[in-house]
Amino acid sequence: MAGDYAVIALYIAGMIGVGWFGLRLAKTKSDYLVAGRRLGWFMYSGTMSAVVLGGASTVGGVKLGYTYGISGAWLVIAIGVGILVLHTLFARRLVKLRVYTVGEMLDLRYGGSTSTISGVVMWGYTLMLTVTSTLAFATIFKVLFNVPSWAGIAIGGSIVVLYSVLGGMWSITLTDIVQFVIKTIGILLILLPVSIVSAGGFDGMAARLDESYFELTAIGGDTIFTYFLIYSFGLLIGQDIWQRVFTARTPGIATGGGVISGVYCLVYGLAGALIGTAAKTLYPNLASAQDAFATIVEQQLPAGIRGLVLAAALSAMMSTASGALIACSTVSTSDLLSKLGLKKAGNEVTRNRITTLVLGIAAIGIAMIVDDVVNALTIAYDILVGGLLVAIIGGLAWKRGTRQGALASMVVGASVVITFMFVDGVEANSPIYWGLGSSLAVYLLVSFLTPRTSDEILTLWTRRLNGSAAAEEEEAKLAASQS
């Protein structure tokens, strides 16, 4: 394992080094939270792909392939479709708004008084996403060093917190690009072809596995529908995803780079399912499908190369964890702490660094004491989609929507989701179905029964959608330089 240790050590040192370099770039709030809104095509598509393809898409995608065959790709395909829809329909408008959070967009569109409710929901979602991503570190470090779970969580979590605190979104973006390259090489260019060849090619797999492993719908139509409902819609409105959209230099870069990222996700999903299918062919009697990724890496790859692929899995987990952490920090400072009068207290970058550090330590602590937070993440996703989707998409697509309608849809949608979780269970599909349906009905009804949003608010909204915020920022910079 000496070669593997060397590769992993080099990778970890590189992440910390890149984080330290990002410290020099994060001089303003815009730098720290959205990388100065300066990312080009390659960096944008790379960092977007890195943040959405985490441990669940990598280790979990192989697990689904081991269990269901190629239909196990649907989870990551749903993620890819969500990225494609977001960037083809909404990304241009989001970039032009020049905001930092989903809550700020809602306040701008509806005239205020909405970001507190949306901020609480988004804060819970991003914190739980950080916890689950941090929890996943235990798997990789257990394979590498045979350390207990809490130690693996502490090692991986500390690295993420360190580089995230140092340079904020700049550090996260730079590390994401490195992680994106490592994932592409390790998973797509090494593990995928080695797995298929070792399993005897497609003919060899077909001869030894049940026909259902090569049916696109073997995982079940209900499951596929639920993946799209939760993950595709969740990606349309998640703060961790929107914050990456805000980093694009231009609306065109956001659209084009996002489409590239969406296609990459589709390829990545199919690759994970095929690796899992090959693992089923080679090791049909594993005690747990969760072990499929680690087993095929350990058994089929030589030292050094094995370390690179494990680093790829580690990259997937770190990119998601860091993206969720900076999103949680941004919601905390912009949507929640500002309501307590802390908006102008001290230097903005320092305040964001402290918040990121506190939340990172909290996420590590929660991950250490909780064995399985999958249900908690399901709760967070269901409340996010059931409570916020209608108000957000309605605000972007329907001018007749009102602030009262948005607030009512958030409260009712989230409440119905929680109620049906108690009635039918966390893993049931009914909470999200009833939550979305009730949220939409209330949004439409209350919006029609309340006065239209004032022309003043809609005029400002339209001006921002047309790019006035960018022009105003440039004028402010010019005036500051001349003075």
TrEMBL record:
Per its UniProt record, what InterPro entries does this chain match? Na/Glc_symporter_sf, Na/solute_symporter, Sodium:Solute_Symporter
Question: Where does the protein principally reside?
Answer: membrane
Q: Name one GO cellular component term.
A: plasma membrane
Pfam families from the UniProt entry: SSF
Please list the GO terms describing molecular function.
Answer: transmembrane transporter activity
Please give the start and end residues of each transmembrane region. Answer: 6-26, 38-60, 72-95, 116-141, 147-168, 180-201, 213-237, 258-279, 308-331, 352-370, 376-398, 405-426, 432-450
> What does UniProt give as the signal peptide span?
none
Q: Which UniProt keywords apply?
A: Membrane, Transmembrane, Transmembrane helix, Transport
Q: List where in the cell it is found.
A: Membrane
Its topology with respect to the membrane? Multi-pass membrane protein
Task: Read off the CDD domains from this record.
Answer: SLC5sbd_u3 (cd11479)
Q: Which family does it belong to?
A: Belongs to the sodium:solute symporter (SSF) (TC 2.A.21) family.
Q: Provide the protein name.
A: Solute:Na+ symporter, SSS family
Provide the species name.
Answer: Amycolatopsis keratiniphila
**Which lineage is the organism of this entry classified under, starting from the top rank?**
Bacteria, Bacillati, Actinomycetota, Actinomycetes, Pseudonocardiales
